[in-house]
Amino acid sequence: MKVLSKSSEYGLRALLYLVGNSSGQEYVSIRELSEQLDISFHFLTKILQSLTHAEILISYRGPNGGIAFKIPPEKIMLSDVVRVLEGDDFFNTCLLGLPGCGAQAPCPMHQFWKEIRGALKQEFENTSLASMGHTALLSSLRLGP
Amino acid sequence: MKVLSKSSEYGLRALLYLVGNSSGQEYVSIRELSEQLDISFHFLTKILQSLTHAEILISYRGPNGGIAFKIPPEKIMLSDVVRVLEGDDFFNTCLLGLPGCGAQAPCPMHQFWKEIRGALKQEFENTSLASMGHTALLSSLRLGP
DNA sequence: CGGTTTTAGGAGTATTTTGTCTTAAATTAA
DNA sequence: TTAATTTAAGACAAAATACTCCTAAAACCG
Fold this sequence. Notes:
2 copies of one chain form a homodimer.
Chain A: H1 6-21, H2 30-37, H3 41-53, E1 57-60, E2 66-69, H4 78-86, H5 110-125, H6 129-133
Chain A binds a DNA duplex through helix 3.
């Protein structure tokens, strides 16, 4: 079950690394992130760029530059991140992919799926980056040993 | 949020159509399914083939041939279909896509995600095709008006 | 100022997923 | 037996996703 695109996976891993490995307001370079997490530097740059545009991160160029949280990670919910990286209707899709599906023309799975995705939405909206990342060891965010 | 591949979407739509539009043991042709549901005939053929291999459907060639349920749809759970079309570890993936993630080396989201996907698994395992399809009008399974 | 470090942005490439086409095999009916 | 109908199977093509590379712009340091 793949609910997130690679962009979201990488973005979340980077943010969780930030939570665990930056003490407050100093910038962490994207190069460090990409190397520690084994993610393509250029690809990660673009992902973090959109989080910067969305005002979840701030970036700074030049030596000792990088990215940092603009908002404290206690106030950033998983749903915020996912909505930026996956699109605004992330929690509003039809299980069967039918474009017309909705309250007034429901597919056979509509009610079933609506309840599940509603619960899932709530979980994502009630869970902060900080609560997921505060104990995150680097090793748990990497691929191999 | 796209949890299912196109193959699963199409496969489920075809099965739900079968539930609503076939009276028991007669074969429904894939041509009819593909035309009624606006799904590519050859693509759908391959999807239904794998459901036939998995013994959810039976197929018959020649005039008046087609596919039919091998098991009554009351006994086919959504999870059965999805496991065939998405793979056996569908309900066992890491949210962050980390290959090593598991009980003994959990990623920061492991516990969080394990609970959500466990609930989702239960819903899929407790819901039959029949219960979703018994009132399915054709129009609710099609794309446009 | 000139060189170095770092993010920004866009064009281009590779890989995966999705969809098409062609031929074969099974079944029926005339 | 011949023709028609239907699923089976595999090669091929298009589209979407994931990734790479190059150049620019900002910030710093000597």
